[in-house]
Design goal:
alpha/beta; 6-stranded mixed sheet; Rossmann fold; 7-stranded mixed sheet
Length: about 270
């Protein structure tokens, strides 16, 4: 069974979690690594617990410490279960994304407010009734998660306010379409996503967001634009080298935003 919120506790007094890239390690003071096992296997890596801006924070590298997991292989259920087991009640899920619209440029941040799930084959729920009797979740009660507004408004506001304080361009709202990966979009797919009015494209936003909701945790994401996807407005299509270069250039700014947002989490 899922751990009831009121029964979750940690000797570390953790309330805030961050699931992001490996470049976030250095923003945690006095880190302690916690190894975990869950009913869904081990999470992507050990969870690092330490201080950020006076708050005790749990950090988990989504893809593993050495990018061990491509997007569709990330152990999302284990990651969220481990965070919930530590008592985390609010999660920031920073990620990278490609721009689908001409006003969103590499280096911009987008505090998304909607999500479109185009993934397939991922374990996307804790409430897996009908699964084999020995599968985790087979005995969970029937549950359909409310998900009309997938991102917590208070955490979104904290991210937007923090971005303004540190002087970075952060767009308020936008839909993030999540593709399965590991490949990038074709030009036809990218044009379709753009014509649908979606703002950015990413590979890891789902099922992380809905699993956090099922676990009773507030969740919000700030997406760093790293590229123009399959060539918005004549730009060169995305490459992995280009994505990594923009991430390296902006990781310090993203850490600054989180350091300013975390203290305001209730």
């Amino acid at each position: 069974m899922l751990i009831p919120l009121d029964d979750r506790a940690s000797e570390f007094g953790i309330e805030v979690g961050v699931i992001g890239g490996s470049g976030f390690y250095e923003f945690i003071d006095d880190p302690v690594d916690l190894e975990f096992d869950t009913p869904y296997g081990a999470p992507s890596a050990a969870i690092t617990v330490g201080e950020v801006a006076g708050r005790t924070v749990a950090f988990l590298p989504r893809h593993g410490r050495d990018h061990d997991y491509v997007a569709h292989r990330v152990p999302f259920r284990a990651n969220i279960w481990a965070m919930a087991s530590l008592g985390v009640r609010s999660v920031f899920g920073p990620c990278s994304c490609g721009s689908l619209q001409p006003d969103l440029h590499p280096g911009d941040f987008v505090v998304v407010d909607q999500i479109v799930d185009r993934t397939w084959g991922r374990d996307a729920t804790f409430f897996d009734r009908g699964a084999p009797d020995d599968a985790p979740g087979f005995d969970q009660p029937l549950h359909h998660q409310a998900f009309a507004d997938p991102y917590d408004p208070g955490l979104r506001r904290a991210l937007l306010d923090a971005a303004r304080r540190v002087g970075v361009t952060a767009h308020d709202g936008g839909a993030m379409v999540v593709i399965n990966g590991p490949r990038f979009s074709t030009r036809a797919e990218s044009r379709w996503f753009r014509e649908m009015g979606w703002s950015v494209v990413n590979m890891t936003g789902m099922p992380e967001a809905v699993l956090a909701a099922e676990a009773g945790m507030a969740y919000a994401s700030v997406a760093l634009v790293t590229d123009y996807d399959a060539g918005v407005d004549g730009h060169e299509p995305v490459t992995m080298d280009g994505v990594l270069a923009v991430m390296r250039e902006n990781i310090a700014r993203l850490r600054d935003v989180l350091e300013h947002a975390i203290p305001s989490v209730g």
